[in-house]
Design brief:
single chain; mainly alpha; 71% helix; disordered N terminus
């Protein structure tokens, strides 16, 4: 069930994990991007970089997570979810994809805030995501495009560990109940389980890491090159000024987005794996 070995038929079949992950990423952006931009305005502004970044990021995340689980499980029996396998696999994948997400999200955030005239003067406007990236490197150096990297790393490692733990345990126990009740698996049942487990996993994830995301956004969109880049210090400053509520700014829209976006990701991932012949059960 949730933690049984994933098989791809041997040979070079491992690439299928990454294709399935890419499809999950595309589904995530298609469903979640409009909700995400509620926090910073501009609906689909910055969507191009989001689609490209998320497709690549999810391909890596789901692929690395699946392969790492296989490696860590080794010859252990398939007797249910194991946190000692799920957590390090998810954190390893999160650490890798943080290097992809940091620059793409910096571009997305800076493009999005241009939807609010009072925040961005005309002379600092970007004509496209590429222009934003080029101007950032030109004005802030190569390290500028990775501004917010520490916050992104903390968010991705923690968030993915929470997400996959909740997802795997829920999926395992729901399937166990279905087997006990003699219900047969079917497309609609699998999709419903995917919606529930992915959605609740997403809510748990963002409830745990939203403060890191708040710190990241502040660090990446600040016009001051000398702005504090330590996410813990940024959060400490926010807490002193606005309390816990300030650290969870945008919680409502984020939770509203988290369920459908992550539900879509899991449904797309699991459906893609089935179509590609990857067996998990």
């Amino acid at each position: 069930m949730g933690e049984k070995k994933t098989t791809t038929g041997g040979g070079l079949g491992f690439y299928k994990e990454y294709v399935a992950g890419m499809n999950a990423g595309l589904a995530t952006v298609a469903v979640g991007h409009p909700f995400d931009t509620v926090k910073v305005k501009g609906l689909y502004r910055g969507a191009t970089s989001s689609f490209l970044g998320m497709a690549f990021e999810s391909s890596l995340m789901f692929g690395i997570y699946s392969q790492a689980k296989l490696f860590l499980r080794g010859t252990l029996p398939d007797d249910g979810p194991r946190p000692e396998i799920i957590v390090p696999s998810a954190m390893f994948g999160g650490a890798i994809i943080s290097f992809v997400l940091c620059p793409t999200e910096l571009v997305k955030c800076r493009m999005q805030i241009q939807g609010t005239d009072s925040l961005v003067p005309n002379f600092r406007r970007y004509t496209s995501p590429l222009d934003c990236a080029v101007q950032t490197v030109k004005n802030e150096g190569v390290t500028g495009i990775f501004r917010g990297g520490s916050a992104t790393l903390l968010r991705e490692c923690t968030g993915n560990a929470v997400f996959f733990t909740v997802y795997e345990y829920l999926r395992y126990h729901i399937h166990s109940r279905l087997e006990d009740s003699k219900l047969k698996d079917g497309y609609l049942i699998d999709m419903g389980i995917g919606v529930l487990t992915g959605g609740l996993g997403g809510i748990a994830c963002w409830s745990a890491v939203l403060p890191f995301d708040v710190a990241k956004t502040i660090i990446q969109t600040s016009p001051d090159k000398a702005t504090e880049r330590n996410p813990l210090k940024v959060l400490s400053s926010i807490h002193k000024r606005a309390g816990l509520k300030g650290c969870y700014a945008g919680l409502g829209p984020t939770i509203v987005r988290a369920f459908p976006a992550n539900a879509a990701a899991i449904v797309a991932w699991e459906f893609s794996m089935k179509m590609l012949g990857i067996k998990r059960d």
